[in-house]
Amino acid sequence: MTKIAFIGAGSVVFTQGLLADLFGLDLGPLQIALHDIDPERLDSAAAAASYLAQDRPVQISAHLERRAALENADFVINIVQVGMNEATKIDFEIPARYGIRQTIGDTLGVGGVFRALRTFPVLRGLAKDIAEVCPDAWLLNYTNPMVMNVWYLKALGVKKVVGLCHSVYWTMQGLSELVGVPYEDVTYLAAGVNHQSWVLRFERGAENLYDRLDEAIAADPELLRRVRVDMYRRLGFYPTETSEHSSEYVPWYLGHASEVDRLRLPIGAYLEIVAENLASYEQTRSALKAGEPLEVEPTMEYAPQIIHSIVTGTPRTVYANVPNTGLIPNLQSGATVEVPSLVDASGVQPTAVGELPPQCAALNRSYLNVAELAVHAAINHDPRAIRQAVMVDPATSGTLPVEQIWALCNDLVVAHNNYLDPSLRAALK
Questions:
Q1: What is the rounded distance in angstroms from the CA atom of residue 199 to the CA atom of residue 173?
Q2: CA-closest candidate to residue 191, choices 168, 209, 160
Q3: Ranges assigned E (strand) in 263-346
Q4: Fewer CB within a 10 Å sphere, N or C end of the chain?
């Protein structure tokens, strides 16, 4: 019997989407162990799981204690969000006082750095527990910031960890629709870093579909008001994340009011997503209490597909975030990169993509510089490296002078003090 542990299962809507996908696959008998530190959310997750399981051969258990959920697990799906909504609000409100504009704030920039710093202690505990109670388990991480979290876990010695994100898949769905070609007829190759990979090939048979994309952009001037279309026109390769995300990883957009207006960038958009997620959770909880049916759409997420391929030996290709062991030679060795990966009974086997176009690699390296310093801060207990990470962040350094960057970091360290490692809690001059 395959055992799958969900860490952070109180993210009820996402959890039930993953469960619906898992229960739709031929995996034989399953044990689903749900863990969360919030009893109410854990109860809701367990009730949703029981509803979705129906008459399938599935055993479901709920655990407030993490090690109990992990005991003998074959797969661990990590979806924790440390600090939840209140911490996210702090990540937006304090930088906004300094004039920093953010849209999502979960990947790079000052929001991404501090989300990582408050997540690392939880990841360290999770890594220790896995090593002791389920050392052969695959850790499938969804928690952002993906690059920093996977890099940190590898630095701790976790061997079987893979970061998963749906951005490549949904980007290609959207591009296929935009050029009028069924997704099933499209072949493509993407690579780079999470939320900033690049579509290196986009084809139908011998046809280069980038030509069709150029025609679509020429026919619809409104497309020019999307950040990633703007980036594609200037860089020659389409980025694999939404315009809201993409705007945060470069210095050209959010620091300029005229660009925010031209490209219709929704400042603070993630706060609206947080509110929507909370509303969805309340709707799910109410439906469960009332005995009403749950409407759950398939997610097409990679974790259920990976589990199915490893358990059954069915080969498939997914996009995975893994250490750069020569996979992309012109990005930093050991950094977390996003590449196509074969999955079968042997596990996850990343594909060596080769060098990226130099302009794409240059932006990825800037991104990875921030991630590397954030991981360094945690591994080496170096509070100065927190400030240095934000100093080299493209969007932040393009907006604030260095004294204000340090002051901003001091304010965020104080605000998030209870989540940070003790060695990182000091304000610095």
A1: 12
A2: 168
A3: 316-323, 336-344
A4: C
Catalytic residue selected from 35, 166, 245, 416 = 166
Residue 171, C-beta contacts closer than 8 angstroms, at least 6 positions apart: 190, 199, 238, 239, 240, 241
Separation CA 399–CA 100 (nearest Å): 7
Q: Whole-model pTM?
A: 0.96
**What confidence tens digit (pLDDT) does each residue in 382-423 have?**
999 999 999 999 999 999 999 999 999 999 999 999 999 999
- Taking the CB of residue 276, how many other CB atoms lie within 10 A of it? 11
Distance CA 22, CA 3 (A): 12
237 vs 356: CA distance, rounded Å: 10
Is residue 6 exposed (0-12), middle (13-18) or buried (19+ Cβ within 10 Å)? buried
The distance from CA 127 to its chain's CA centroid, rounded to whole angstroms, is 18
Q: Name the residue among 266, 289, 262, 291 with its Cα closest to residue 276.
A: 266
For residue 223, the 8-state DSSP code is: G
**Helix, strand, coil in percent for the chain, rounding step 5:** 50, 15, 30
